[in-house]
Amino acid sequence: MTKTFRRILIGQVLGVLLHQRGLLVLHASAVEIDGSAAVFLGPTGAGKSTTAAACYANGCRLLDDDVVAIRFFDERPMVSPGVQQLKLEPETAAILGIDTTPADDDDSDGAEKEYHQASSEGTREPKPLERCYLLSDGPEPTIESASSHEQFMDLVSNTYTAGLLEETGATKSHFRQCSRVAETTSVRELCRPDDLEALPTVVDQIIADMRCN
Questions:
Q1: Distance (Å, rounded) from C-alpha 186 to C-alpha 127?
Q2: What is the pTM of this model?
């Protein structure tokens, strides 16, 4: 079984299982910063893995890269650690100084990606969700607050199991979970240039923002 196929299979099966257990499952990446979780949202190619990897290279713990599961304790959203493996382009890994192993030769997704297995030490317990960052392109790294409506819609649109909501009768509970996250967590717009050299500045801004509660 190739690494790419195994990753897809694990992600899809895990996403469904977590959804069936009542968790909010997002298509996202997440890291731990000072004991709290930062989640990166956005469409394919927005740079979720790259941003998480840049934080990881700066000493943050990786919680998940692709399928982020949020559970609720006393109505407080908590990010559960998942598959702590990064999938990166070789250039990105090289610039960040992250050791990777090549994908199998028979991978057929057309993407030249490599893998890094992050250490799971210290990441077994769920972490309180402090920030959600919606990624977008821009000339300079900036972080701005999103409106309440945008916060809710960003969470809904980045749901990993969106196609299962109506089929499993979970639409109402899912909307309630997204509303709860929007009420208790700061959802921000993270604008970053498509320039790997700007990643250190992006990470500095994320860490500073996380520490400014």
A1: 15
A2: 0.84
